Amino acid sequence: MQIERLDHLVLTVADIPRTVAFYRDVLGMVPVTFGEGRVALEFGRHKINLHPAAAPLLPHARVPQAGSADLCLIVSGGLDEVAEELAAKGVAIELGPVARTGALGPIRSLYLRDPDGNLLELSVYA
After folding, report:
1. Which PANTHER family match (predicted)?
2. 36: Cβ–Cβ under 8 A, 6 or more apart, which residues?
């Protein structure tokens, strides 16, 4: 077997509308509803499905918990512009820019938190 790509991932969140607002308004993701009222966030060819922490959908992670994720997202443009945009939206940068290593090589990253405390790494390839 050879894995081709990641299709989607699931975030367990405390409050779906609050999460949708953050990812839509701060990161520009597009909220979509599918299935029987499920919610996801789309960006490029990817999506993040949202599960409510109070009633996670089956099957789910062994211990579904809001705020336990650590995601790295590649952004377009430069990190200076990203930092300015985050500041304009009142979002604090926790760390960065710092040098890291992504799946395809060296990256520069900024770190911030979503409303549940998930760690988000916004990065550009060097």
Report:
1. GLYOXALASE DOMAIN-CONTAINING PROTEIN 5, GLYOXALASE FAMILY PROTEIN
2. none
pLDDT in tens, 44-64: 999 999 999 998 788 888 888
The overall average pLDDT reported for the chain is 96
The letter for the amino acid at 94 is E
Give the residue numbers annotated as catalytic, written as ranges: 121
Q: What is the dihedral of CA 101, 107, 108, 111, to 10 degrees?
A: -60
Give 87-105 as a DSSP string.
HHTTPPP-EEEEEEEETTE
Strand-pair category, 46-52 with 8-13? parallel
Q: Please name every residue paired with 122 in a beta bridge, in sequence order, or none if there are none.
A: 73, 110
pLDDT tens digit sequence for 61-92:
888 899 999 999 999 999 999 999 999 999 99
- Which tokens sit at 21? 């607002």
- DSSP code, position 82: H
d(CA 101, CA 12): 26
Q: How buried is residue 120: exposed, middle or buried, by Cβ count under 10 Å (0-12/13-18/19+)?
A: buried
